[in-house]
Design brief:
Helices cover 44% and strands 13% of the residues. With 445 residues, it is an alpha+beta fold.
């Protein structure tokens, strides 16, 4: 499950209100971000760029740019998210016509798009300060090979811990800061009420599992020279799998897939009282368990080693420049404005409801906590701190295959309900992913 699959937070003020806010920040900033004229790669005025995106409210975000940059106008073409967007883009690029200048692309699709020669290396066009706007972990997801940059991060989903503070207080529990403490809390919750669980292991959400493995130091794919290296069946991922497999075998967490009617009912009934999820989780909780608003609290995800601040990422997307466009310099300037300027990030946060990947402007653009967390005014301050701890992770060219194998292997593992079965599932994902790369003709290290 990716960020695009979930409801967006309902934090969308009117365009007029946003324009007033941007005006207060200073129209000069918008002008500085724009291009004085049509740009060095333009043959005529005005330059027109087509942008494929599925983000809600993106038309109003783009309208702010267009107001301040009459010589570079961006036209939004709304698309479906997920695999459908990738397929449509690849079809247009291969046909040699109909492709956009820019495209919204999820992190896990970047490598596949690079392998298909669909998105451009924009490293030569970047402002030298652009990489400084993002955590090392997020920036690592948009480069394939030394020095190459294939997109600019837009939103992100750092993993965090959500829990029912009222029930924790009743049981005398504190938010766990380590995974050992999480296991102890899970036992205490289930012992207090056998119908109650602190969390669940969902075999249908490989994106979450990848984020947990990422936190532990895993990177499922890697590049050695001209070869791919698969590192799924390695210590960090096995540690994560065996940990959750142990809790399932012990019976102190649920193995109910997320987003089912049963899972929603458990959230509302107070029998599912915790959720390891991303920064976009408030929108899901509000939509699925609205009656529990104000009772939840967010904390930093438990750590493998006390005192650290490591996390993984679940979901999020980028802005990429498509190969073959006539105005790539202008396209990069727009992408940088939207994803790194105070005005652009503010517009994305307030009109599209995203959690920005841009660290310098994220907290300021989300000054008020989500409506579902009215008692936690530091929600976005803490989320921004958590985002700084996203660990590096490289996605390979066959993520969709690895995720499909994950669903099958871990469905069997949760049915078996043993630590050994969870370890076998990791091995199955590794073996299947390697076999698929070999079948596609990739060279493996």
């Amino acid at each position: 499950m990716t960020r695009a699959d979930h409801p967006w937070p309902s934090r969308h003020p009117s365009r007029r209100r946003l324009l007033k806010t941007v005006g207060a920040l200073g129209a000069a900033g918008l002008g500085a971000a724009g291009l004085a004229g049509c740009g060095p790669d333009a043959d005529s005025c005005p330059v027109e760029l087509t942008f494929w995106s599925w983000a809600p409210g993106i038309e109003d975000v783009v309208a702010l740019w267009n107001q301040q940059n009459p010589d570079v106008q961006v036209l939004v073409s709304r698309q479906d998210a997920g695999d459908a967007a990738v397929t449509k883009l690849l079809t247009a690029v291969r046909a040699g016509n109909g492709a956009p200048d820019l495209v919204q692309a999820e992190y896990q699709t970047i490598t596949s798009l690079v392998a298909a020669d669909a998105i451009a290396d924009i490293s030569a066009e970047l402002d030298p300060q652009t990489p400084d706007h993002f955590s090392e972990g997020i920036w690592s997801a948009i480069g394939v090979g030394d020095g190459a940059v294939y997109a600019i991060p837009q939103d992100t989903g750092p993993l965090q811990l959500y829990y029912r503070e009222d029930i924790f207080d009743e049981l005398g529990l504190a938010a766990p800061t380590t995974w050992e403490e999480y296991a102890e809390a899970a036992r205490a919750v289930h012992e207090a009420d056998p119908s109650m669980y602190l969390g669940t292991f969902s075999s249908t959400d490989p994106g979450l599992f990848v984020g947990l493995a990422q936190q532990a130091g895993a990177s499922w794919w890697g590049i050695e020279g001209e070869s791919w290296k698969v590192q799924i069946d390695a210590e960090p991922t096995r540690r994560v799998a065996e940990y959750w497999g142990g809790l399932v075998e012990e019976g102190v967490i649920s193995a109910e897939p997320m987003y089912t009617p049963q899972w929603n009912a458990a959230l509302n009934a107070g029998t599912q009282i915790g959720w390891v999820s991303a920064a976009w989780a408030p929108g899901v909780l509000e939509g699925n368990a609205g009656s529990t608003a104000g009772k939840w609290r967010m904390a930093t995800i438990p750590q493998w080693n006390a005192g650290e601040n490591d996390t993984g990422n679940w979901g999020g997307s980028t802005t990429a420049v498509v190969v073959g466009g006539e105005h790539q310099t202008a396209a990069v300037r727009f992408a940088e404005w939207m994803n790194t300027s105070p005005e652009g990030v503010l517009a994305l946060a307030q009109l599209s409801g995203i959690f920005p990947a841009d660290l310098p402007n994220a907290e300021a653009s989300l000054a008020e906590p989500p409506a579902f967390f009215p008692e936690q005014p530091d929600f976005y301050e803490l989320s921004t701190q958590n985002a700084e701890g996203v660990q590096p992770f490289v996605f390979g060219p066959n993520v969709n295959v690895a995720y499909s194998i994950f669903n099958d292997a871990f469905a069997k593992a949760t049915q078996a309900g043993t630590v050994a079965a969870f370890g076998e599932a990791v091995a199955a994902v590794h073996t299947g992913t390697v076999a698929d790369l070999e079948n596609q003709g990739y060279h493996l290290a």
